[in-house]
Structure formats: C-alpha cells, structure tokens
C-alpha cells in the first residue's frame, strides 16, 4: 500500500509535462488492452467459423444448398462470405448467358479476391495501432524521463549543497515515465506479433479454400459442358 501511495505522490509532484506524458502512456495502455481483448475475441471467432464452415463444405453437401443456407444468414463472416461472394457471382454469370467457362471462373475469382481482401482488412483492424503503440511508447516515456531529470538537475543547481535526498524524488518520478512507456509497449508488441501471425494463417487458409473452390467449379463446369455436347 505504501508503494502505491509513493507512486501517486511522485506523480502529483511531477512537472506538468511529465504528468501529461504519464497520462498519455496510461491512456495508450488502456486502449491497447481493450483492443487486444477485442482482437483476440475476433480472431478466435474467425478460426472457429473457419473450421465449422470447412467441415460443412467438405462433408459433401450440395453447393446450391450450402449457398442457400449461407444466404439465409445475416452474420456471414470470413470463409462463408468468400464462398457466398464467389458462388453468387458464378451463378449470376451463368444465368446471364456467360456460358464460357473461363469467363465464369475468372469472374468468380475476382469476386472471391475482393471478398477475401475485405475479410483480411477486417481481421487486421487495430493492428496498426498496436504496432504504433509498441514502437513509440518507449520513446514517449524516455522523453518524459529526460525532461524530468533535466528539471531535477536545474532545481539542484539552484541550491548550494545537494544531497541524494533532494535528487532522488525528481529522478524517481522521471524514471516512472520510462517504466510506463515499457508497460504500454511490451504487451502491444507481443499482441501485434501474435495477431499478425494468426491473421497470416487465416489469410492462407482463405486463399487455399478459394483455389480449391475454383477447382471444384471448374470440374463441375467441364462436366456440364461434356453432358451438353
């Protein structure tokens, strides 16, 4: 409890600029943790939905029936949205007279590419902020430390006889800014690296699914053309 009171006392005795630095770092830390929890929940949900949809897709369910099930849902996400966008475009092109297989598949590929890009952008939301906090917070804290130590030595120069007891509080309050900078930066850097890796794995899974889905549509189209001929 005494340590807590001591830290609060050092904060209250700090200069205005050092206080602003500390409050800024505290705010960045709070916002970072909120984003970390939110991104963790989103990525966990994306991984769960990915596994569920892949199990359903590869279970042998008819593509038209699967498309209708996905269309009936209002919360399509990730792989579901990529599949829905691609198959919707494929059906539209086939119904509007684009019987050429290459054109239909190219249109489907473009539709899925756009949907994939949007889904990855959604997964990467807030990651640039975490990267910024991780890279700049130590320097913000260091700026507060340098400013606080500079003020401590300026005040020290105004007295004839300096003692450690006179210098220690000013240096301590300045070093707290560095500690707070590291406290904000370290979780942000760890979370950014971890989330970036997970987003990359999800993106690869989306890309692989899109390629496999196009192969299925290509085989289906070739089979239909052979029947017609």
UniProtKB/TrEMBL annotation:
GO terms for biological process: bacteriocin transport; cell division; protein import. Residues 80-205 form the MotA/TolQ/ExbB proton channel domain. The keyword Transport does not apply. Its main location: membrane. InterPro entries: ExbB/TolQ_transport, MotA_ExbB_proton_chnl, Tol-Pal_TolQ. The Tol-Pal system is composed of five core proteins: the inner membrane proteins TolA, TolQ and TolR, the periplasmic protein TolB and the outer membrane protein Pal. They form a network linking the inner and outer membranes and the peptidoglycan layer. Part of the Tol-Pal system, which plays a role in outer membrane invagination during cell division and is important for maintaining outer membrane integrity. Belongs to the ExbB/TolQ family. PANTHER family: PROTEIN TOLQ (PTHR30625), TOL-PAL SYSTEM PROTEIN TOLQ (PTHR30625:SF3). This is Tol-Pal system protein TolQ. The gene is tolQ.
